[in-house]
């Protein structure tokens, strides 16, 4: 495969939608306002398991301005589909606390909210079980893990190898439930008319929402249109439609008017997905020089009773380091909890916290520098699949990152560096993320008045996709970016894959390049003459992707952290965070750096703050607002930077790029935890690293 | 409060007030439900969608606007309380067509990704520069009885009421430093 | 939110009268300050008043000097203005530090001095009307005791309630012995801090000693020259924009290496801003040394009765008291 000439790819073009965003003109889902709009507010169950016996819909209908109260007895029917998270208000069953049991529609937000507050719902309560434990008797082996990986894997004889390994690390780590908390709540405006259903939605995939929602309402796909030009962050929670989309459509159908519906911030902690908590046991067997002979990584996770989501927590361990003996596994338990889903690097993020913490423990046990330990265990081919790597520059990331961070001469002794009242430490962790590419379609069009329009139902959730695709199209067409008008965020555009799995640029970029190439060919055949109606070329990349050669394709990186731990209080501050990445060709250094440091910032936040606390007595996540669920604030994020290794990989896609949206978070929490150990001598194996996990111990 | 005002469920009619609201120099005559927040009035009745609803509890800062030049959370501001105030939203930061220097710096420094927290960040940033110029101390000011300057620590502390989940803080600080220095 | 009538008062007397009229009408009537807590609680359904009396336009919104070198702070003054006031910064730096350690710049521009004192606990159960809470619904129970109480009280709590008072500002005010001026249906009166707030006992629904209709009009700071050397230290989970896990306000008067006088109060540990009177007594006349500070802190915290998940607050509070006092000694 050859890559296209790239005068614009590689340049730091400002975001093409920047002016819209900084002036407040960018219109997000809830801000679409069709005429005759009504407001919908959802009512959530206050029990974790049982049945809705009755809803006193009549009382609230007496309130002025109330248009309808919708619940399972009067809701429009939807087609039964497998995804029970979406077949809302169809049955009296309550499967988790916070599940939607009714929707109130009113003339104003204030009236709808008040009616929702006053609505009386009677339940038949059943005992619930919401506590994840590795030894839960309900643990089972799922058929596969997300998206379609084998549940377990085994190579050699890991138990025997552990038995005779001179050095063994055997540690159990845990990561808590975490919520995405995009700053834009999940919102939908639904409008039914003679053409069918229009949804202004906050989604990472207009095409997927259309494909999912159309059959629910018995409509052919072409009668559903999903419009989402701007999306206020997603991180996976908007990767697939959740209840609010269906509820908005149901409510609009019921009242015969356009309806607006947004999950509130508090409601989002139950109805828009979260990252499963995990318990992970990692066992490493090595010789005195730190060469791994065995790796065993076992994960225990939760899922909901209404839907299985099996996070691929240990899959990364199948590829990361060389070792002749290896086992990975996943076990799940179905609890009376909300439905977990993808959250930024699902699998890799919690999995690498455990693996990279364990590697640090091994470095300490062997007395080997943690950078050197990782270099020493670099595989030559993908250890489990036996495939060559299309490119793998982890070692370069570690080496170059160490040089830029000032790692050389690091004293490995923990707990001995002081700066004022702070103990200082540094830590490193490796990072990686798979290269995914999904089929997409695109059209490129030469406009009769000059200039080009490129269309694809991609989503720019803040990644810079609109900008980067503009650059890619400009290069493929051989024109400056100013001559390209990029249209995304609408299911009426050519079908595109989800903005997820760090696959957007690779998937959509391939389609955009092929469409532009086809258009360029067509223009050549016409000697450059654009007909009065314009000239358009369309492509579908499905066939090209099927022909892809087998390789182990991943991006790699390394994060280096310096932390200060207050000796009086145990407060941890990340003083420096540096990421080194090898992710193919970087198409826009400005937006790419933002992606890397944004992911690292979320990783910092995960390391120190984020935890959704399960209220075992009542069965919901207790701290469901942004005052209680802490995400990093500006003051927490000091010196965070990223750079990348030049990487030529001809076996990726026409741009030569790997995904960069998720790798920044992977590894960051372990780098911080390893730095905390270096600072204090305390190994925190349970995230987040809050002061109470340090204050009672040695600090 | 001390337990007052807990009179249980009451099915009452909305109470409205006719007020004049001054936003970005324009006077608007609006009939508002007393329960209506400034954020909802702006977004739902005046089609000024710049101020964003991120949490509706004063915890994220996306709704930040300026009232008489001071930054506030419009989600916790009842509209009936600001009929005699001058409100500025992100739409009113700059004159028609141009960008405010802070808006231009945000674009140049890539100080946002999804853009949803951005209007609030911008209103806050413009106010922070003024607060420092006015000599207001912050939680990181070493000597609160002395002068203050707009260094990175001060910017980070003062901008902490505006959450950015995309993690653009580093670039936000750079943009504010560029404009405020 | 339940519909409510809105009235704007021009002075304290008319505010009290308007509230009384609202209450007499059968609807709950409350004063509205900056609204940063009240509007939120109304949205959560924790309180549902029928009348709001806006007291932000009362003339008492500035700082006046009192005879003897104290300050009288108007209750309608915004937190930002209080923190930035030159006399407050010079005479009571711990008060400025506490105010700017609270919430965010936007919230401080809204919040009033009176309203800040009357903030309600941020206990998760209190804020969730679908769950029991003795403070919100007396007699319904306290799930925090066996549930999540990591950030709740370790001193002075009761079987009925383990909530903490969330205000930063109230902590130095308690240390200073500020006097709260109140206008009420029965006339004007004054309550010295820390006596404004009360321990929960078996009536946790009452946060303060205020009677229905009482309006805070001003807060008087007594003259305390050594408070010019004072400090507020706030420990929190996030570097900014987070409630205190533990905080300390302290002022220290040291002469010839001996503690002549001191003021110490703790935040984040009790239902009230906790004046550390035992520690203060222990320190007066003792040497200004780390050992003496540690001994004083230990005497204060001997009263602590922590729960399983917040026991860490006891060593944390001890460390922060000692370190803050040492910082004050080192700065002198």
Automatic annotation (TrEMBL), chain A:
Keyword Oxidoreductase part of the UniProt annotation: yes
Transmembrane feature ranges: none
UniProt cross-references to Gene3D superfamilies, sorted A to Z: Aldehyde oxidase/xanthine dehydrogenase, a/b hammerhead, Aldehyde oxidase/xanthine dehydrogenase, molybdopterin binding domain
Keywords: Molybdenum, Oxidoreductase
Residue ranges occupied by any Aldehyde oxidase/xanthine dehydrogenase a/b hammerhead domain in the UniProt entry: 23-127
Domain of life of the organism encoding this protein: Bacteria
SUPFAM superfamilies assigned: CO dehydrogenase molybdoprotein N-domain-like (SSF54665), Molybdenum cofactor-binding domain (SSF56003)
A molecular function GO annotation: iron ion binding
A Pfam family recorded for this sequence: Ald_Xan_dh_C
PANTHER family: ALDEHYDE OXIDASE 1-RELATED, XANTHINE DEHYDROGENASE
Listed name of the protein: Xanthine dehydrogenase
Organism expressing this protein natively: Planotetraspora kaengkrachanensis
UniProtKB/TrEMBL annotation, chain B:
Name of the protein in its database record: 2Fe-2S ferredoxin-type domain-containing protein
Organism from which the protein derives: Planotetraspora kaengkrachanensis
Domain of life according to the entry: Bacteria
GO molecular function, a single term: oxidoreductase activity, acting on the aldehyde or oxo group of donors
Keywords of this entry: 2Fe-2S, Iron, Iron-sulfur, Metal-binding, Oxidoreductase
Pathway listed: Alkaloid degradation; nicotine degradation
Pfam families with a match to the protein in the record: Fer2, Fer2_2
Endpoints of the signal sequence: none
Keyword Oxidoreductase attached: yes
From TrEMBL, chain C:
Keywords: Oxidoreductase
SUPFAM superfamilies the UniProt entry points to: CO dehydrogenase flavoprotein C-terminal domain-like, FAD-binding/transporter-associated domain-like
InterPro entries in alphabetical order: CO_DH_flav_C (IPR005107), CO_DH_flav_C_dom_sf (IPR036683), Diverse_Substr_Oxidored (IPR051312), FAD-bd_PCMH (IPR016166), FAD-bd_PCMH-like_sf (IPR036318), FAD-bd_PCMH_sub1 (IPR016167), FAD-bd_PCMH_sub2 (IPR016169), Mopterin_DH_FAD-bd (IPR002346)
UniProt keyword Cell membrane, yes or no: no
PROSITE patterns per record: FAD_PCMH
Coiled coil: none
Residue span(s) of domain FAD-binding PCMH-type: 1-226
Keyword Chaperone set for record: no
A GO term for molecular function: oxidoreductase activity
Protein name: Oxidoreductase
Source organism of this protein record: Planotetraspora kaengkrachanensis
């Amino acid at each position: 495969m050859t890559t296209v000439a790239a005068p614009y790819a590689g340049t730091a073009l400002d975001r093409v939608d920047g002016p819209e965003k900084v002036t407040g003109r960018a219109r997000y889902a809830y801000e679409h306002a069709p005429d005759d709009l009504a407001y919908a507010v959802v009512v959530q169950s206050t029990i974790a398991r049982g049945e809705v016996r009755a809803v006193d819909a009549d009382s609230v209908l007496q309130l002025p301005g109330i248009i309808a109260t919708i619940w399972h007895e009067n809701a429009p029917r939807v087609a039964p589909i497998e995804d029970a998270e979406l077949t809302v208000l169809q049955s009296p069953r309550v499967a988790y606390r916070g599940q939607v049991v009714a929707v109130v529609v009113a003339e104003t937000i204030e009236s709808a909210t008040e009616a929702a507050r006053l609505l009386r719902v009677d339940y038949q309560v059943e005992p619930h079980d919401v506590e994840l434990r590795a030894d839960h008797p309900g643990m089972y082996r799922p058929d596969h893990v997300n998206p379609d990986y084998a549940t377990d894997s085994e190579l050699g004889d890991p138990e025997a190898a552990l038995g005779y390994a001179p050095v063994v690390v055997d540690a159990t780590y845990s990561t808590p439930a975490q919520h995405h908390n995009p700053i834009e709540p999940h919102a939908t405006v639904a409008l039914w008319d003679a053409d069918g259903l229009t949804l202004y939605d906050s989604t990472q995939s207009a095409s997927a929402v259309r494909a999912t929602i159309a059959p629910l309402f018995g409509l052919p796909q072409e009668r559903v249109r999903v419009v989402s030009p701007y999306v206020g962050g997603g991180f996976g929670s908007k990767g697939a439609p959740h209840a609010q989309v269906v509820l908005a459509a149901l409510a609009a159908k019921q009242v015969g008017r356009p309806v607006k519906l947004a999950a509130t911030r508090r409601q989002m902690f139950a109805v828009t997905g979260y990252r499963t908590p995990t318990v992970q046991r990692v066992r490493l067997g090595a010789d005195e020089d730190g060469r791994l002979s065995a790796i065993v990584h076992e994960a225990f996770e939760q899922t909901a009773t209404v839907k299985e989501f099996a996070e691929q927590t240990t899959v990364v361990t199948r590829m990361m380091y060389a070792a002749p003996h290896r086992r990975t596994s996943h076990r799940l338990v179905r609890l009376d909890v909300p439905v977990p889903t993808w959250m930024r690097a699902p699998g890799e993020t919690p999995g690498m916290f455990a693996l990279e913490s364990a590697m640090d423990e091994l470095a300490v046990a062997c007395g080997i520098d943690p950078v050197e330990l990782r270099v020493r265990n670099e595989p030559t081919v993908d250890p489990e699949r036996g495939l060559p790597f299309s490119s793998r520059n982890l070692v370069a990331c570690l080496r170059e990152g160490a040089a830029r961070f000032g790692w050389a001469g690091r004293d490995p002794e923990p707990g001995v560096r002081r700066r004022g009242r702070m103990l200082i430490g540094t830590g490193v962790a490796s990072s990686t993320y798979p290269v995914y590419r999904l089929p997409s379609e695109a059209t490129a069009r030469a406009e009769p008045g000059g200039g080009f329009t490129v269309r694809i139902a991609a989503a720019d959730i803040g990644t810079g996709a609109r900008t980067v695709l503009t650059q890619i199209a400009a290069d493929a067409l051989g024109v400056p970016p100013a001559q390209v008008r990029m249209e995304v965020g609408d299911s009426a555009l050519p079908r595109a894959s989800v903005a997820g799995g760090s696959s957007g640029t690779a998937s959509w970029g391939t389609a955009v390049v092929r469409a532009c190439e086809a258009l360029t060919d067509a223009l050549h055949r016409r000697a450059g003459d654009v007909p009065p109606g314009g000239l358009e070329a369309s492509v579908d990349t499905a066939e090209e992707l099927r022909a892809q050669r087998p390789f182990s394709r991943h991006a790699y990186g390394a994060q280096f952290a310096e932390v200060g731990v207050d000796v009086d209080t145990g407060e941890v501050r990340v003083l420096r965070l540096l990421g080194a990445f090898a992710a193919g060709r970087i198409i826009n250094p400005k937006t790419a750096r933002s992606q890397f440091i944004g992911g690292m910032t979320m990783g910092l936040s995960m390391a120190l703050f984020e935890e959704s606390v399960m209220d075992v007595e009542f069965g919901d996540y207790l701290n469901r607002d942004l005052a209680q669920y802490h995400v990093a604030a500006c003051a927490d994020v000091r010196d965070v930077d990223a750079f990348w290794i030049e990487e030529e990989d001809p076996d990726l896609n026409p741009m030569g790029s790997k995904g960069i949206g998720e790798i920044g978070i992977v590894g960051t929490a372990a780098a911080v935890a390893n730095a905390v150990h270096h600072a204090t001598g305390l190994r925190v194996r349970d995230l987040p690293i809050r002061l109470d996990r340090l204050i009672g111990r040695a600090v | 409060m001390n337990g007052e005002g807990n009179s249980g469920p009451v099915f009452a009619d909305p109470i409205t007030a006719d007020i004049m609201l001054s936003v970005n120099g324009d006077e608007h005559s609006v009939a508002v439900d007393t329960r209506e927040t400034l954020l909802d009035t702006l977004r739902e009745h005046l089609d000024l969608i710049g101020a964003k609803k991120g949490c509706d509890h004063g915890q994220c800062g996306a709704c930040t606007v300026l009232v008489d030049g001071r930054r506030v959370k419009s989600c916790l501001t009842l509209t009936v309380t600001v009929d005699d105030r001058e409100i500025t939203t992100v739409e009113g930061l700059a004159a028609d067509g141009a960008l405010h220097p802070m808006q231009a710096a945000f674009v140049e420094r890539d100080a946002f990704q999804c853009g949803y927290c951005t209007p609030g960040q911008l209103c806050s940033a413009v106010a922070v520069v003024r607060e420092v110029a006015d000599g207001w101390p912050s939680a990181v000011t070493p000597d609160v009885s002395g002068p203050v300057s707009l260094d990175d620590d001060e910017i980070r502390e003062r901008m902490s009421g505006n959450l950015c989940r995309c993690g653009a803080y580093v670039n936000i600080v750079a943009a504010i430093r560029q404009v405020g220095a | 939110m339940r519909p409510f009538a809105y009235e704007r008062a021009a002075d304290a007397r008319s505010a009290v009268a308007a509230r009384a009229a609202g209450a007499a009408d059968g609807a709950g009537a409350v004063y509205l300050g900056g609204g940063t807590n009240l509007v939120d609680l109304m949205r959560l359904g924790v309180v549902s008043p029928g009348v709001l009396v806006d007291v932000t336009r009362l003339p008492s919104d500035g700082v006046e000097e009192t005879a003897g070198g104290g300050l009288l702070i108007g209750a309608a003054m915004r937190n930002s203005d209080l923190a930035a006031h030159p006399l407050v910064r010079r005479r009571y730096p711990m008060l400025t530090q506490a105010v700017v350690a609270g919430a965010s710049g936007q919230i401080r521009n809204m919040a009033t001095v009176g309203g800040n004192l009357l903030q309600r606990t941020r206990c998760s159960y209190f804020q969730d009307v679908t769950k029991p809470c003795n403070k919100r619904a007396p007699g319904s129970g306290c799930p925090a005791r066996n549930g999540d109480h990591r950030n709740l009280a370790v001193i002075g709590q009761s079987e009925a309630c383990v909530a903490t008072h969330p205000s930063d500002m109230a902590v130095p005010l308690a240390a200073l012995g500020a006097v709260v001026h109140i206008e009420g249906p029965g006339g004007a009166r004054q309550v010295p801090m820390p006596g404004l707030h009360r321990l929960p006992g078996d009536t946790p629904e009452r946060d303060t000693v205020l009677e229905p209709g009482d309006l805070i009009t001003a807060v008087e700071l007594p003259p305390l020259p050594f408070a010019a050397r004072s400090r507020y230290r706030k420990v929190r989970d996030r570097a900014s924009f987070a409630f205190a896990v533990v905080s300390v306000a302290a002022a220290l008067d040291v002469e010839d290496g001996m503690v002549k006088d001191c003021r110490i109060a703790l935040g984040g540990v009790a239902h009230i801003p906790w004046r550390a009177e035992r520690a203060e007594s222990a320190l007066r006349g003792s040497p200004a040394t780390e050992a003496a500070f540690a001994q004083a802190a230990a005497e204060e915290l001997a009263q602590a009765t922590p729960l399983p998940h917040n026991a860490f607050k006891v060593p944390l509070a001890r460390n922060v008291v000692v370190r803050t006092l040492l910082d004050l000694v080192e700065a002198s």
